[in-house]
Structure formats: structure tokens, C-alpha cells
């Protein structure tokens, strides 16, 4: 059996939030008992509103933050046990593509220096190939001309800047990209172009993707498996097909109802868009974390937290009434 490239088992992340000199700190549970696996070459999509814990999970996978408990494994190795050299190697295997192409690129240096920086840091070049030729090749791979290397980021459009960020990420031949809201800062007309580019690169370079987004349409378009997060916990995990055709958690259905995009046209409008705001993780609700916003909530939901339980071969739902939600 092939080991998953990314493997999280019962991962928790809590922060001690200080509330002043005379008040005791309080724990903020950003991630609570999350488990999932990402097979090599596949895409796992994490979807949920801001504050659901998506980016915290990404930082733990990248090794930027340590889990409070549980285990994060990448390429068969526990991230928590890596020494300095191994962490450097991890950064070569895993590369991030961030949300905002306007702030993720240094405006003071030309595109050539932005793209070749990882090559210089990791001392990676193709045999007999100059840095300039490698940058030109990378820019061509992401749909930009070689002339782009002489320009500054502020001379490029948002879509072009994100292509530069992707070229930088793939420059050192990583095995996985962690895509943190990679198209949310772009015009809708450009989003599909960037997502299609990412799909094409995944196929050609055999990349694994961990995709993070608040937009279920984007996640369903790109992903093989989808995990729906709410207040740091999974409400539903299923294959893309099961989420689209048979979403069972009211929160997943609310995210589907909120879809307003030409991307992922298969995502149907099930139920009503979610009302209200996500509660503070400093004072989460009792019972089911979604019950204050759930149109189906009953007294049991207020008292008893539902376990994430199997609803099919590759489908799990954390809802007391999953059988009757459609």
C-alpha cells in the first residue's frame, strides 16, 4: 500500500491568548482533532469560512507551526521530529502559493530575481542550464513570455503576478504545492485560467496539492477529496463526487447554496446560504459547533456534539441527522 504524501492524525492546535495584565490567558482552539490523508498526485481541498482553521493546518503541514498534539507526516516523516537539515529538505518538497499576488512578490526586484531565488537558495539547476534559461523555461510553463523576467511586479496584472508566484513555486521541482486561496484575490474572469494552469501543471509535473479556499466551487473544481471545516473541526469529508451529489451536512449545503461562480458549475444550490457569523473560537458553542446557525438544529444538537461518522465508503459526516438532511 502506497503511503499518503500528507497524513494528519488527530491534530490539535491551540494558542494561549493573553487578555491583559490582570486577566488569565485563554486557550483558542484553532484546530481540534483533524485527520485526513492526501495520496501522492491527488488534490485534497479544505473549504470553510475565515476562522475555520484552514490556514493553520497549512502552516502545520509546511512546518511553519508545530501541532499542539497529534501527528503531521509529510512523505512518511513526522514533521515534529525533523532536524534543521531535514526541515530545509521539507521546504524543497513543499512550496506555498499564497492568496495575494500583490503582496507575495517583492516589488523592488525584477521577476527574474523573484523566480530564481529558490534556485539559488537550494542550489538547483538543470544540467548545463543557466539560471536565465531556467527562468525563461519556467515562465513559459506558466504561460508568460521570457520578456517578463525583465519587468517588476507592479508592471504586471494580478493574473500575471500569480503566474510568476506559481513559476517560483515549481522552480525547484517540489512534490507538493500548498495552495492557500490561490485565486480569491483575482477577477472571476482570471480565476478559471489560473485553476486550469494549476491542473495542467499537476498532470505534467505529477504534483500533489493541498488546496485551501472559502469557495466550494473552486474546491470542487480542483479536488479529488474535500474536507469541510468549521471552527477547526470537520463537518464532512467525502470525495468530490459525493459532496456534489450527496452533501449531507447543513453547513456543506449552505456553502453550496452560496456558490455564485462560473467555476464548478456542477455544484448545485442545496438549501439556504448560511446566515450569521462564525462564532469566536475563544468561546465555541456547546454541542454541535454549527447549531447556532443551523436551520435544522434541535435540542440534541445544543447538548451533544456529533461524532464524525461513516456515511458511505469514502464519506464521513458530523451530524446527528445526516440521514434526513436532503
Number of helices: 10
| Low-pLDDT ranges | none
N-to-C order of helices and strands:
EEEHEEHEHHHEHEHEEHHHEE
CATH superfamily of the domain at 76-174: P-loop containing nucleotide triphosphate hydrolases
Distance from first to last alpha carbon: 36 Å
> And the CATH topology of the domain at 76-174?
Rossmann fold
| Largest sheet report | 8 strands, mixed
Strand content: 15-25%
Task: State the helical fraction.
Answer: 25-40%
Outline, from the CA principal axes?
globular
What would you note in describing this structure?
This protein is of the alpha/beta class. It has a domain at 76-174: P-loop containing nucleotide triphosphate hydrolases (Rossmann fold, 3-Layer(aba) Sandwich), CATH 3.40.50. It is 31% helix and 22% strand. The protein has helices spanning 54-62, 84-93, 111-122, 131-141, 158-170, 188-205, 216-222, 240-246, 250-257, 299-303; strands spanning 6-17, 26-38, 43-47, 69-74, 77-78, 94-97, 176-180, 208-213, 225-230, 233-239, 309-312, 315-317. Strand 4 and strand 5 (77-78) form a beta hairpin.
Task: List its salient traits.
326 residues; Rossmann fold; eight-stranded mixed sheet
Strands, helices and their partners?
Layout: E1 6-17, E2 26-38, E3 43-47, H1 54-62, E4 69-74, E5 77-78, H2 84-93, E6 94-97, H3 111-122, H4 131-141, H5 158-170, E7 176-180, H6 188-205, E8 208-213, H7 216-222, E9 225-230, E10 233-239, H8 240-246, H9 250-257, H10 299-303, E11 309-312, E12 315-317
Parallel strand pairs: 3-8, 3-9, 6-7, 7-8
Antiparallel strand pairs: 1-2, 1-4, 4-5, 9-10, 10-12, 11-12
Helix pairs in contact: 3-4, 3-5, 4-5, 5-6
